[in-house]
Amino acid sequence: MSEKVTVKTFRGLSGLEEIARDWELVIGIMERKRFFHLADWYRCYLNALEDNPDTVLFTVVYIGKNPEAIFPLKISLRRIFGLEMKALQLPSHPHMCLNDCIVARPELVGSYIPLVLNHLEEVAGISWDYIYLPRVLEESSAALALAEQADVLWVQRPCGQCDYLIVRPYDLMFQGFTTTFRNNIRRARKRAENLGNIRYTSAHERPDLDRAYEVFLDVEASGWKGRAGAGTAIKLDSKLKSFYRLLMERFAETGGCAIHIMWYEDQPIAVEFSLITDDTLYTLKIGYDERYASCSPGHLLREYLMKYYGEKGEIKFNNLITDASWHSQWKPKSYNVSHYYICRRTLRGWIVYLYQEAIVKIRPIWLLLKPRLRNLNIWPDRFARA
Predict the structure, then answer these.
(1) Residue 131 and residue 182 share a domain
(2) pLDDT of residue 226
(3) Nearest 5 degrees, angle CA 96-CA 325-CA 280?
């Protein structure tokens, strides 16, 4: 790179707005952007879920005057072997399931990492022992960048998969299912038809989305997540309600939010809250009324979505975000997902590195032993927490 490279760090909501134009310039160059690369995703997070927005940093790499990459990092404290470690991590939350840095040209990202690490060591008021990148897709910029770092102390810890469906003519998709699942879908359709008037709606614009959002909250809270169950429903948590409403409002401005509902008469029985970026529909949340479980409303709503978007032709992929067991019946493809740890060459950094390396090696053995330990009533409360 012949032009001068500079790195700057900005803090919190004010910092995000200060680099808003730079962020849009980077996004405009990206060939494969996802919803969690967008500035609006972080606006919603900072406004609704983050108790202390000023602990979130945005480190920007410039080539000349042009922004090339943005690294969102949150200041946090984490414990390992009882030691309190200072970490910088990609902002994370149970409702923020995928993460990455934002990079205009991935082929250059490897050269940014040493510059960013050196810069973060010099930022006033910030000290850290390691950088934690949770739930990163194997094809992400962060993963590509670390693969090129021979002189950086880092660990990759696999943590699951991210399933996705290729949207194509539904008849072809249906033929690829197992005989058992095809028969289950037919029976579910028949049971739904026997109920009476079944219909589906899709909301993409305000005020349809406002009405659909309230339905989404009610249905998502109607089962085991509601007051009578685990109490984890979005409707019962003011922060989560605010987060999803902000997502709906922000992404709706560019046609990037969709709420799909399956109805029996005037009763909603299944719902999906999705975000759309480029050619991909991302399924953030699903829910159904368990009183209608016999007609598999979740699967029937998925069938409707595949037909709906297959006919529209604008959506090529449905990203399911996680690797939930029910996905397997739809024969999805998958990305591997990993946690990454970048450790400083200090005593504390080496402790983190060796600890995570040990977990990577021990985990396969642990997975084999766990069922036996359960049978023997030997069951550690927690294991290998990041």
Answers:
(1) no
(2) 54
(3) 50
